[in-house]
Specification:
420 residues, 12 helices, alpha/beta, Lyase, Ornithine Decarboxylase, Chain A, domain 1, binds pyridoxal-5'-phosphate
């Protein structure tokens, strides 16, 4: 097995040094399972390459916002990139200082801007001139100065899935290159705005680094324009490094990625920010589910598992591929199967026409590389309580970091209206 932190020992799958079978004997499936050891290794891989450079990592909270995960990441010295008031609230719960938080997103509301200003965040990544004027208005009312970076849309193809490419001219993100200089000039006229720098985020699950280099090459001109007006303090090159999803796939590590872009980074007295999400937490999480039923319809084999698209939607949403393996290694002849959940949608699948050994009902499957954009995208569709999240600590102790929701959690916001 060539996935980080995963191996079969005496036919039993171990993740982060711990037997997954043992964990299924304590916790009911389905659940997400994370490894602190793998998470820290991913962060170390970034640190190894950035240590002599003025580069700051701002973990992208959207990838996985569990409080215990955020706390571990905060302890390792990363700042945070948020996209909503809710994500800010989560960061504040674990006592992240405002000056370690940056705020991206095309649709920040007045309440969110005020909340962020009151908590003195490092800067807002602004994505339109209208947003700039709204921030000015709120900062004026609060009698503060709002630090901002301009998010530019550099029109670059990140060669990834269309739903997760964000820096093409047809995407909603950032300010177009032809409005860049004008936005700088506008920002400089506003008394309650302090222009600090600019940045971009061109997309996610990027494994071909040529687009990253192209964006840096294109930035030279943006830097030149910016420097005409102000000293560049922050240059934010976003997140987007991809991870391994397929067995045979070889993808750049965080260290490989940084080393390949270092020659293209601007030099001088400025801070370069990176917003990695998936490449920090993706490989540090797997999702465990139990086979409820096996059936053969018209010669097609289905493994019907107790997890579903409401817990992990990536396969249904993007047709994303996740490797799926049994937690007890099998030598049986592989079969072609569909792995599907109990939800009443044909799109409720984890894999289609996948080669897997013949398995039995009540056996467990692990869905790999599920730490990022997994639980955070879950829902309660079909009135299914969201699953639990479990952490394997570095000392190999296992602890729950989010309880499975109850039936009462499903109805809590509604119940008080029943008698009105
Ligand atoms: C602005 C911004 N920064 C960072 C990220 C994190 O990307 P990734 O998880 O691919 O590193 C995203 C994700 O879409 C984003 O929108």
């Amino acid at each position: 097995m060539n996935f980080e932190g995963l191996e079969y020992k005496n036919t039993i799958l171990h993740f982060g040094g711990k037997s997954v079978l043992e964990i299924t004997q304590t916790f009911p499936t389905p659940f997400y399972l994370y490894s602190e050891e793998i998470l820290e290794k991913r962060i170390e891989s970034y640190y190894e390459a950035i240590k002599d450079h003025n580069i700051q990592l701002m973990y992208s909270v959207k990838a996985n916002s569990n409080l215990s995960i955020l706390k571990m990441i905060h302890k390792k010295g990363l700042g945070f990139d948020i996209v909503s008031g809710g994500e800010l609230f989560r960061c504040l719960q674990i006592h992240v200082p405002g000056n370690q938080i940056i705020f991206s997103g095309v649709g920040k509301t007045e309440e969110e801007i005020e909340f962020a200003l009151k908590n003195k965040i490092l800067f807002f990544s602004i994505e339109s001139q209208s947003e700039l004027y709204l921030i000015e208005k709120i900062a004026k009312r609060l009698q503060v100065v709002a630090p901002i970076n301009i998010r530019v849309n550099p029109d670059i193809n990140p060669k990834t899935h269309p739903y997760i490419s964000t820096g093409l001219k047809e995407n909603k993100f950032g300010i177009s290159a032809d409005q860049f200089e004008d936005t700088i000039q506008t920002a400089l006229t506003l008394k309650h705005i302090e222009l600090c720098g600019f940045g971009y985020h061109i997309g996610s699950q990027i494994t071909d680094l040529s687009s990253k280099i192209e964006a840096l090459e294109k930035s030279k001109n943006f830097i030149k324009i910016f420097n005409k007006y102000k000293k560049l303090q922050f240059f934010d090159i976003g997140g987007g490094l991809g991870i391994q999803y397929k067995k045979e796939e070889k993808v750049p590590s965080p260290k490989d990625f940084i080393e390949s872009i270092l020659p293209y980074l601007p030099k001088g007295d400025l801070t370069i920010l990176l917003e990695p999400g998936r490449s920090i937490i993706g490989p540090a999480g797997i999702y465990i589910s139990k086979i409820l039923y096996i059936k053969n319809n018209y010669g097609k084999l289905f493994y019907i598992v107790d997890g579903a698209m409401n817990d992990l939607i990536r396969p249904s949403l993007y047709n994303a591929y996740h490797e799926i393996i049994p937690i007890i290694e099998k030598q049986d002849l592989p079969q072609i199967v569909d792995i599907v959940g109990p939800i009443c949608e044909t799109s409720d699948f984890f894999a289609k026409n996948r080669l897997l050994p013949l398995m039995q009902e009540n056996e467990f499957l692990a869905i790999l590389s599920a730490g990022a954009y997994g639980f955070v995208m879950s829902s309660q569709y079909n009135s299914r309580p969201r699953p639990s999240e479990i952490l394997i600590k570095k000392n190999h102790q296992v602890q729950i970091i989010r309880e499975k929701e109850t039936y009462f959690d499903l109805i809590k916001p509604e119940i008080k209206f029943l008698n009105e």
